[in-house]
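Support case: xanthosine-5'-monophosphate complex. Customer-provided input:
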Amino acid sequence: MNPTPQILVLDAGGQYCHLIARKVRDLGVYAEVRPSDAPAAELAEARGIIISGGPNSVYDPGSPTVDPAIFASGKAVLGICYGQQLMAYLLGGKVRKGDKGEYGFATLDLAEAADPLFSGLAGRQQVWMSHRDVVAEVPEGFTAVGSTETCAIAAIAAPAKRLYGLQFHPEVVHTTRGREYLSNFVFGVCGCRQDWDPRHRVPMLEQEIREAAGNRNVFFFVSGGVDSSVAFALCIRALGEDRVRGVYVDTGLMREGETDFVRRLPGVAVEEAGELFLGALAGATDPEQKRRIIGEAFVGIQERIAQERHLADERWILGQGTIYPDTIESGGTANAAVIKTHHNRVEGIRKLIESGRIIEPLKSFYKDEVREVGRELGLPAELIERHPFPGPGLAIRCLCSEFDAPVRVAEEGFIIPVNSVGVQGDSRSYAPVLAIDTADHDRATYLINRFSSVNRVIAAVQTREPLASMQVSACSLTSARLDRLRRADAIVRRLSHQSGYDNKVWQFPVILIPLGCGPAWPDSIVLRPVDSVDGMTARSVAIDAGLLEQMQAELMQVDGVAGVFLDLTHKPPGTIEWE
Ligand code: XMP
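Agent response - structure generated as follows:
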């Protein structure tokens, strides 16, 4: 039994909403998420309320709102990002529509304030921003206590009413003192006491699995990644080896050596299906279409295997390693912005979920927590420390194009007509990429904030011909292009591992883009090393010159490669993957 939540987080549709609840739980205080418009009377049990961020403007018709009675109840309320704007707007302040917004790092100047929320925090500090609109005038009774260069009202307070707002995100790791803000709110303002031990989760998870499975057995499709392996191991621990089975489907979209790695895992059988997937993907260029095709092919195989192994009867249910970001990023919660269709949220799987024949023990966890659970289960470090790899595999790292299009020379650099996905102000956008000639991360951030038509900046490391004369060619997913990407990825992984660079990055996607110079060299490689804690936000990481030179030299030897680039974009505004 979980304790009564002391903090309730109201979901205004932001990607970071559940992260807030979990950060509060990490402080030892039990917190839960509720819909934003929950009536104040239903929130009475909590000591404090946090209103999350969200992609909307308070002026959008139908944008999430809260019961205004919460502001008059005497209960402490903290609004974060959109939550701050909503609080200001509902209480009579003014919100101004932003034109270009502010994404990524900012420096906050926080005034001295004799108030528990800001206790010990005055001064300059790094915060993380992701917004367009801003509060332009505080409501009566409030004062502005913090500002950044582009946001005059970045923290507000009405201590007498116990109401507070922060324009930045204290819940993400890039706000360096974020934990202190949350801790001050939870303990200093709300007076919560510790009632939650994060280590309780393994026995709690086992119990949940036993309850969900009843007397049925669990069948898993393992991917060799951390999530499905930890979920698999948890089920074995909860139910015993005899009641849990695993199959790994080789989709032909795996990295070099991957299937051999998985063959070494205990209790897992391998199913070869490369031809089926490549056949289904022939001619597809649209990212969402590619994801859908893969998801459907996967479901088809799942159903076939289940039939062949007589798993279709009522004695079996499906286990999955879905983690929290998989569900929010496909609109799995009430308000989260619809971002992309993950393979484990396609129609066929949804039906299984609706009929209750599915177990997803990790679905409210973030990657770093999944690793902790894995460690508690005693799984080997080689498995736990693996970088995450997306379900649709290399397919979403092999970009395609419907059209031929030349590179365009612009004042600031070169516009590469390849659309990549980005996240700006909590909603996603596909936009062309800007290439510049130096690996300057600060300049990249500046350029993205300045030009709203671009969400990603890359540096040209080496190209076979001048960038201005290169072009994007129409192409789809072929086995030749996948082989090219697989070889490039294997080179980067080897060099990254040998040099120890592996340990500096959280994930290191290698992307193939159809930017070339003639039919002999149709593609280029983009390196995308990022640091992150949970994949929700990320920093592009620099590579030292010697290692980059080695990678570039070997990559340029790969058949058909016309150039090598380095992605300089943080998340936000650029997602980790390019599709
Ligand atoms: P983005 O690109 O959204 O990625 O910044 C965040 C994390 O999610 C992974 N990712 C996926 N995982 N299926 C998956 O199983 C997908 O379609 C997918 N897209 C992104 C990504 O690798 C990163 O770790």
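The domain at 202-393 is CATH 3.40.50.620 (Rossmann fold).

Case will auto-close in a few days if no follow-up is received.
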